Please model this.
Amino acid sequence: MSITAQIMTPAKWSCSISKKQPKQGEIIDLIFTVKLENNWHLYSNIQNYEIGPLPATFEFDLNKSYKLIGNVIPVNTKKVYDEVFEVDVNYFEHTAEFRQKIKIIKKSAIIEGTYNYQVCSTKDGKCILGDDGFEFKIN
Model:
């Protein structure tokens, strides 16, 4: 008897930068884009509740080659009342985008870190936690 499990990945993450070849001293955006399968929601990093769906989080491994400016900003979230948690939640459907402004301090900058997130199905209420690392190399 063999048992196989299908790993569900309803969220596909990609990373890019707002300027092709930024120079030392410039301010650019790190862009996190997420393609979501139909009937799945990704929860924004900005929420106004204490108990509810897990918000996306971003952690940066700080070094002297760059400086964070402000916080990660979600772009074009939607809001809905969640009857299970009895709170308003900020979420994305189809596509999500997060942006983090940074200032390039050194000619060659390496920005690394991790993100964590939760996606939930609007069909059956199934939720999946996810995490991964990211790396931006700027020369």
